[in-house]
Amino acid sequence: MDLAGKNIVLGLTGGVACYKAAELTRLLTGAGASVQVVMTAAACQFITPVTMQALSGRTVYTDQWDARIANNMPHIDLSRDADAILIAPCSADFLSKLAQGRCDDLLSTLCVARPATVPLFVAPAMNVEMWQNPSTRRNARQVAEDGIRLFGPAAGQQACGEVGMGRMLEAAELLEELVCALAAKPLAGKKMLVTAGPTYEAIDPVRGITNLSSGKMGFAIARAARHAGADVTLVCGPVSLPTPAGVQRINVQSARQMHDAVMAAVPGQQVFIAVAAVADWRVANASAQKLKKQDERSLPQLAFEQNPDILATVAALPGAPYCVGFAAESENLVAHGQAKRIRKGVPLLVGNLGPQTFGLDTNELILFDESGHVSLPAGDKWTLARELVAEIGRRLVHATPGTQPLKRTA
Ligand code: CTP
């Protein structure tokens, strides 16, 4: 329930992408928001207020002169309780109205009449030529300068048959942008590097050694860090998870590739979170050709050599970022966790029981620091990721010289 308790005014203007506003309304209410739909006359040509009212569960307003509002001032009343206004779709015409501050219908008047504390987001949706037209470029720049955030547009196939920039973001992408925009930003201005997933160590061109890490925890942390305002780079082993919006992703396979990618990306980072389940060993005698099956007395003999310890290497750098390790143990987490934190030389280590969480959406975390350990209540990985990122944000404040570390129970 990422939007629990939030009041969102969803404005629809004229465009084929109005069909996506129906799905968006479902996603917004599913995320806990109350959705107040306001439509322009042009939007009503593409989708009916009946549909939007059924989906939002609230009266839809289309007219500045709607007498159902007691004081007959819908532009005031509908914007005062709002936590945000989202215009999706936002047509070229409506963008030009916003750029000029025109007030010739309910939705444009409501946008201009909103209190300065109510953020306005717009999701442009239009034909590629309309988006590229110099007047639209100018209007987009102007609204951005006025503090109105644009979500998208994306490039792709358009309803008119042409291809290019101007497609409205999908409903799920708009929800993600809205949740991110409304989240607190304790990591604003910080750069964060995250590793995630397993590594893959080749035996031959078709076989390898890997582990059961799904990457879900690391990806959730990268997403939560971006929501918290960080500029996030995610180095990940072979996983098929979608890249969190706004996160820069670097794909690697082996531990050595992950090491090299991390060392190249680490300068300038303020935080490094090593969530990846990195293979401790690689195959020293990997074969350039596929190993062929022979009789059962001549089984392949694998030799191993140790991989670099990425976390310990970064933690030992001069001017190292604030380093957070993860420990995936199979038993005796409390004893192993604290020992591992000290061995790796990091201020914070997060312990979890690997076999109880690999591939699942839930986890249980224990935080180890110099003053002891504390458990976070078991929960889904997204909730835990947000709590962990918030905790790291607090520790960064306390890590500045002259302030006290947090008190923890031993
Ligand atoms: N790690 C790393 N590079 C490695 C091995 C581990 O950066 N070559 C990081 C992991 O990303 C994690 C932490 O170190 O943040 C602990 O990983 P884990 O596999 O639990 O610890 P190991 O050091 O490998 O110890 P062991 O396998 O003996 O428990």
Describe this structure in words.
This protein has an 8-stranded mixed sheet, with helices on both faces. With 410 residues, it is α/β, with parallel strands linked by helices. The protein contains 14 helices and 19 strands. It folds into 2 domains: 7-182, Flavin prenyltransferase-like (Rossmann fold, 3-Layer(aba) Sandwich), CATH 3.40.50; 191-397, 3-Layer(aba) Sandwich (Rossmann fold). The longest helix has 18 residues, at 381-398. Strand 6 (154-157) and strand 7 form a beta hairpin. It starts with 6 loop residues before the first strand and ends in a 12-residue tail after the last helix. 42% of the residues are buried. Mean pLDDT is 93; it is low at 401-410. The site of cytidine-5'-triphosphate (CTP) has 16 residues, from helix 11, strand 16 and helix 12.
Task: Supply database-style keywords.
alpha/beta, Rossmann fold, 8-stranded mixed sheet, 5-stranded parallel sheet, 24% strand, binds cytidine-5'-triphosphate
